[in-house]
Amino acid sequence: MSAGDPRPVRVDDWLVYLESLHPRAIAMGLERVRAVMGRLDIRIDVPVFTIAGTNGKGSTSAMLEAVLRAAGYRTGLYQSPHLLRYHERVRIDGREVGDDDLLRAFDAVEDARVSGGAVVPLTYFEFGTLAALWLYARAGLDALVLEVGLGGRLDAVNAIDADVAIVTSIDLDHTEWLGTTRESIGREKAGVFRAGRAAICGDPDPPSSVAEVAARTGARLLVAGRDFAGTPEGRQWRYRGPGGDRYGLPLPALPGAFQVGNAACVIAALDAIRDRLPVSSGALRAGLVAVELAGRFQVLPGRPTRVLDVAHNPQAARTLAATLGEMGYHARTIAVLGMLGDKDIGGVIDALRGRVDRWHVATLPPPRGADASALAGALERAGVAVSDIVRHDDVPAAWHAAVGAAGETDRIVAFGSFLTVAAVLAVERAATNRPERL
Question: Residue 119: CA atoms inside 13 Å, Cβ hemisphere, count?
Fold first, then answer.
């Protein structure tokens, strides 16, 4: 803080400040965002892709950005949460925004928030979303990709009308805000659909609420397996859809057979808007093989094999287990697990119990983090032997212990939360940047 101005002057200080602006970390609703967006006069005049879904949002968003950039378009990409630093959330033309841009945007949003009438209380996510939109509106973009933070209908990014909306998958997560059934969750996620515009559903068995929302809204619904599909064929895959069939496509650079389904959503979305954003077959192929996304079955270089995945709900854990099964032989699999206490810890453990030989469980920070004892108890109730469970005070301690205990033919998989993966990446980055002793 400066002496004459109570506002923060560094990005990290701003982020602390943002956490104090609303009494709740999550407060669903668009009224506050729309009020401040009107004061900011934010106008997005380029095609917008909005991506919702229980799992697969990040991968699908990253693929869309990669393909559009390969086609020569200047893109904006908004994703959350971040792993190592806030700037990861806001990308323009393939690059994270810098401190100066974020500071200008935060100042603009704060000016609008406190002026023009009543002061508007914004959550951390709402404030950050408005700052990102303010930057995108001034960036000279050709296309904008927005990843939903939570749900869809009442998420801050839904203040912008999507030209193409994608719902990747629908399963139980965030039930305290979205409801306790797939029907209620599907209804919330389908809230990003817009009248007369394409609505892509990557879940081949969506709850009926998705079609009901599309019909009520007047959106043009396309469902995976019915209206479009991606089919693996060895080291390639084939797409069929209303925009035409494509053969001999390269597998996405993101690991896991399931990524073909996300890539099929990308093609369906691009076909739906090809009159405004034409993409050649060459650009599609180039984007699929160039895409990168940290923390989604990310394999670190070197031995032993080390895998990082943010899987934090049963559906994501089942996908992680299947992808681990696609890897080659490893003598043992050693897990580093850290989770938030409000997640389905038992469901995640059940999905991966058969793939893991030894568990290193770690306490995540309060107030939401589960402690190691709670994780160990859940493992014991799932039938894991006490001798195969090691408790740690934090993720770095668990990671160091797992690496120290692993042989060259073993593999280590760290999962359960973005916080878990972020902590491991921070440890690995520090080790990489550590100067060698002479």
Answer: 6
DSSP β-bridge partners for residue 238 = 231
- Report how far residue 69's alpha carbon sits from residue 279's, in angstroms, rounded to the nearest whole number: 10
Q: What is the pLDDT of residues 68-118, one digit of tens each?
A: 999 999 999 999 999 999 999 999 999 999 999 999 999 999 999 998 778
Is the Cβ–Cβ distance between 90 and 96 less than 8 Å? Answer: yes
- CATH number for 11-290 (one of 3.40.50.300, 3.20.20.70, 3.40.1190.10, 3.10.20.600): it is 3.40.1190.10
Report which DSSP code applies to 388: G
Judge residue 176's burial from the number of C-beta atoms within 10 Å of its C-beta, 0-12 exposed, 13-18 middle, 19 or more buried: exposed
Instruction: Name the token pair of 211.
Output: 């079609």
CA distance 297 to 137: 33
**CA-only gyration radius of the chain, Å:** 22
Residue whose tokens read 């104090």: 20
Q: Please report the sign of the dihedral spanned by the C-alpha atoms of residue 299, residue 304, residue 310, residue 311.
A: positive
Q: Where are any strands of DSSP class E within 34-178?
A: 48-52, 75-78, 90-92, 95-96, 143-147, 164-167
**Please, are residues 168 and 192 in contact by the beta-carbon 8 Å criterion?**
no
Whether CATH 3.90.190.20 fits 298-433 = yes
pTM score over 0.85: yes
> Residue 366: is it exposed, middle or buried by C-beta count within 10 angstroms (0-12/13-18/19+)?
exposed
Q: What tokens were used for 266?
A: 């990308």
Q: Is the peptide bond before 304 cis (omega within 30 degrees of 0)?
A: yes
**For 171-206, how does the pLDDT look when each residue is reduced to its tens digit (9 = 90+)?**
877 767 678 899 999 999 999 999 999 999 999 999
